[in-house]
Specification:
By secondary structure, the protein is of the alpha+beta class. It has a single domain, classed as Alpha-Beta Complex (Cyclic Phosphodiesterase, Chain: A). It contains four helices and nine strands, in the order E-H-E-E-H-E-E-H-E-H-E-E-E. It has helices spanning about 10-25, 55-65, 100-115, 140-150; strands at about 1-10, 30-35, 40-50, 70-80, 90-95, 130-135, 155-160, 160-170, 175-185. It has a five-stranded antiparallel sheet with strand order 2-6-5-4-7. The protein has a four-stranded antiparallel sheet with strand order 3-1-8-9. A hairpin with a 7-residue loop joins strand 4 (about 70-80) and strand 5. The termini are far apart.
Amino acid sequence: MIRTFIAIELPEEIIYVIGKVQEKIKSHGFKIRWVHPGNIHLTLKFLGNIKEADTEKVGRAISESVKGYRPISLMVKGLGVFPGIKRPRVIWLGISEQFDLLTGLQKTLDEKLEAIGFPKEKRPFRGHLTLGRIKDKIDPKRLNDVLKEFNKFESGHFIADRIILYKSELKPKGAVYTKLVNQLLIED
């Protein structure tokens, strides 16, 4: 069994900008387990543990999902927390621009995966980039001040032009991701 997820890889210039945002937030001294900037990605579907032999059929489902989708123009925009300001667990950056196309692609992917035995997502898709996981209580006022500080944050545009099936290995120093399937978005 291997732990897997399907995501969009971010370009290096966006990863660099995200790292700068993390550094500014770190200066506030919150107890957060930060995701290494190079590991930040836009998750479309977390599959969890699957049989290694199933990667082939997942790859076919990904390939079928992208038919008719062209590369998508996206931008990183705004900062937020899940589930909410009073009991935050995850701090994230949002996604904007052609979000409707991204949501459509994610829905198509979810349907194709359901057809091969992977349960459909129960929650609506909320495309985001996880910056870190909050370990302790945070003063909501201090956190709200940081959220306001980054409320108008925007990165440059980037093109999401491929979907990747990743293997995730949890190690003491953080997750190690290996690309198993790398599917280009090509307009038919």
